[in-house]
Amino acid sequence: MKLTRKDDIAAGPAPAAYFTGAVTIERLQDSAAPSRVNAVRVSFPPGARTAWHTHPLGQLLIVVEGEGWARTEGEEKHILRPGDTVWIPPGERHWHGATDASAMVHIAVQEAVDGSAADWQEHVSDADYLG
User: Fold this and answer.
1) Rounded distance, CA 66 to CA 101, Å?
2) Is residue 1 one of the residues assigned to a domain?
3) Per-residue pLDDT for 30 more than 90?
């Protein structure tokens, strides 16, 4: 068993190449072989969001604070509230983040294949975000 205290969790700004806005990521779990699972707590201020992306083995989101949006390409966006969970199947192109008026915090759990848990793509346009 490995216990990590809150004060020992690494946190920092999310990479600008993959996020719009001043997003903060806390690394909750980085896997060590043979495990492939990792988990992060992501804090989005209003208007912040991920870029379009997919996951090779899917992703589980658990909303813990605020309100957010999630959208799969070609579908309507969904509003997310505390306690909601979202399962994104492997290979599904999507984005998620805060609404334009509310911050949101979620925990994201995903598995890595060959060291990669996501295939990052282009930033979400304002039209796609607000539409």
Assistant:
1) 10
2) no
3) no
